[in-house]
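Same chain as my last thread, 361 residues:
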Amino acid sequence: MTNPTKIAVVCNYALNPNRIGGMDRFYVAYDQRAKELGYSIDWYFLQYEPFAFYSGLTIYSANHQNVESFFLEKVKQEYLKYDILVTHFLALCTSFFKKAKASGIQQIIAVNHNPRPLEGFSLFKIIKNKMKGVLYSQYIDQFIGVSNYTRKQILKDYGFFLDNKTSVIYNGIATSVFVKRTQENSNTFVISSHLRHSKGIQDLIKAVSVLEDAIKNQIQIDVYGEGPYETELVKLTQKDNLEGVIHFKGGSSQLNELLSQYRYLLQPTYMECFSLSILESLAANVPVITTTVGGNLEIITNGKNGFIFEPKDYLALADILKNIVLGNLKIDKDVSLRIESDFNLDKMVEGHIQLLVNSEK
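reply #2:
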């Protein structure tokens, strides 16, 4: 009897019991499906303290150390042997991949979720990426983008010669766990986001601050999430006397149920690959107000399942909010149907599992 194919999945991602999102459900479903097919799989995360949702996975925590270094050191010290390495949220084309190959790994699959800055990379960074593409892309057997935008950016950043080993597997979500919105829910808006500057929530605060009181007083915005920019966002809210409008709720593992209580999701982001928050909101039949960046336009069609504005244009966002309150902008149809058919979790999992199957041919 042959030994099972051993897989290591290395993720620059911290697991948190207060944040059970789309990627968390993907990791668990992928692990289950891989094991059903006879694979042996170990997970390496940035941070993990055991909790029930992940109880079935074999997980090693880097305890906020560099997760790539942690993985390489553990493999070396414990003489671990893996056949396939899959990475999520790691920088592409670095010396890590060369070192991983040198440990005996036969196939490396690098999944790119990392968005690019709104203003683009500096000339120095552009040149550096091109050099890294030449030096280290040979050690990665498959590059996977989570949207067409991401695939194009991989080729732009690291070299168009990677075209034949770069493909797309769209993010997907477990649509069945989301409670669907069935009523108007007045003028309630929700943000589900890591709280950092690049998410553009400061522009939302500006947008609300310029609304006339008659409009502003009809709006409720709840912010779910945590992050390094939270203190600054709270200060901006207080500075503009918006504490009665914008409420910071912290992290929540129950967004699959909470989203249905809102009329629209707000995502004024500056950079995005293919947002799971957008998919989750649409799955809950909650249209999305977001920017033109990244893969957003691959899922949001203005006026059909959301409204679009240019990043940083807070006046345009204010106009959208005003017209929603006045009833001039409205989306009545069920916006969840395309998510259920095209961007479901099973489709995402099977796409990634097929990469494993193909790598053994």
